[in-house]
Amino acid sequence: MSPIYEKYTRLLIEMPEPHILKVTMNRPAQLNAADATMHRELVNIWKDVDADPEVSAVIITGAGKAFSAGGDLEVVRGMIDEFSTRMTVWKEARDLVYNMINCSKPIISAIRGPAVGAGLAAGILADISIASRTAKIVDGHTRLGVAAGDHAAIIWPLLCGMAKAKYYLMLCEPLSGEEAERIGLVSKVVDDADLDKTAMDVARRLANGAPSAIRWTKYALNNWLRSAGPTFDASLALEMLGFGGPEVLEGLSSHREKRKPEFNQDSPI
Questions:
Q1: What angle do CA 122, 257, 117 make, to 5 degrees?
Q2: Has residue 50 been placed in a domain?
């Protein structure tokens, strides 16, 4: 395996078989919540995978019982308090999406347990997403008090339709893996015990397939996502705008205090 992956500290990088790379978000005690380091690494890994001639397919998953519980609350607090932090996360969130779209190698996600935030972005943007039946998928942005910006607008309407996208994104309604497959948000659902084996089987088939044909098919299909780039850019900018407003303060406080948020309904919008 290339030494280029030695720089990663929050992502566990392995090559379980020739030409298959496994990337594990590795903060199990925090349910793989993305701190500043993990967020940055989730951005950069896709360029390294794209450039690595030894890799033909990659699996993204989470350590332990969770895929990813979303963004670390200290990062959220920093985004509220500091314009520079907000802009750093804006650039990284933008690059995470476009780096996954432009990575030539097929990406498979294996989703179990909670899947939220930047981790969810990686899970849903994967070319083939596989969820356990009991996975809990939720885009929690509006519950936090900011627009659903970090990946949802570019891909949810394409996968599950506008009506379902609006329902789940505006209400922050959680989906099980089974429901996510039923509405088309993920590619496949399996029992938890079969998740890792299924992901490896899919990765093996891709790694042993015609590489140019598979990569060119991905490139062509992802033009649907590239065409939605302006929609995504607007959603991400509006999310960042929200981090400078009053609603996110109540959203964060209610999250810390484990209570229902009480947002002021006198919005100027």
A1: 5
A2: yes
Q: Which of 184, 207, 233 minimizes the C-alpha distance to 58?
A: 207
Domain that holds residue 108: 3-191+209-257
Burial class from Cβ neighbours inside 10 Å (0-12, 13-18, 19+) for residue 259 reads exposed
pTM above 0.70, yes or no: yes
- Taking only the tens place, the pLDDT of each residue in 30-88 is 999 999 999 999 999 999 999 999 999 999 999 999 999 988 889 999 999 999 999 99
pLDDT in tens, 121-156: 999 999 999 999 999 999 999 999 999 999 999 999
**Number of structural domains the chain divides into:** 1
- CB 137 within 8 Å of CB 159: no
For residue 264, the surrounding DSSP H or E stretch is none
Q: Is residue 197 part of a domain?
A: no
